[in-house]
Fold this protein.
Amino acid sequence: MSKTERLNWKILPQGDYPCEVRSLQIKPFIQKAKKGNQSVIEDRIKFIHSFNPDYIAIGRTGYIVFEFTEKSIYLFESVYTDNATYVFDKNWEDISMFTKKDILINELQKDRMIHRVETWKKRIDNLLR
């Protein structure tokens, strides 16, 4: 069973616009998505969870952190479609407070996987197997 923690900070906050304060639970995020997108979002989260993360943290902006201790991998998964999964190998708590722009400009991510149906699952599988 994965340990789950709720965080008091925004994971990957938007840099230019203030974000609404959202619930710390995953389900309300999914329920807010368009009906046609809800199953896609749930599938991504379930797929990552099938690799048995050691730790899960839920941010305030719709990102979930999945920690895989043995591999020293931290996945930041968005509960929105047309986004990306970010992969980090250290300092996830500090990095999570940067904007996406800062992360990308400073190349703080180990990898960034755009949500493309044809490649996303294969890349996650290759990373976590």
Summary: The chain has one domain: 3-124. The longest helix spans residues 35-49. The beta strands are 3-6, 55-58, 63-68, 73-78, 84-88, 111-114.
